[in-house]
User: What shape does this take?
Amino acid sequence: MHRHSDGERGDEQWRCAAGATVSVECRHFGSDEMKLKAEATTDEWGWYKLEIDQDHQDEICEVVLVKSGDPKCSETEKFRDRSRVPLTSNNGIKQQGVRYANPIAFFRKEPLVDCGFILQMYDLKDAPETP
Assistant: This one.
């Protein structure tokens, strides 16, 4: 789990997010009934581990941001605050039970002082703003 270090969403600079809370939530794909919710806290490197001993073939499971460990970097953005994870052994994936979620991130409330420099570094200073 990471936190985004710049106020600009297009700049992909990341820092580890120690002390953040994440949850795994599994909901039945037909009824949307919550079947599992488990939480974990990230370590100093932004890693977390949850042991789920049940098969969730009939559910949609996601890792979801719950709480940031850094109040200055606690904003979430739709679709970047969660990642789907298959929690079933009946899908052809051979990972010996280990699953990895795609990156999810908190964003800073205020841009960094050197944000303008970073935009110039990526040649984005003249980029049109998106609506």
In short: The longest strand covers residues 59-67. The longest helix spans residues 115-121. Residues 2-121 form a domain with the Immunoglobulin-like fold (CATH 2.60.40). Strands lie at 2-4, 14-16, 21-28, 34-41, 59-67, 82-84, 105-106.
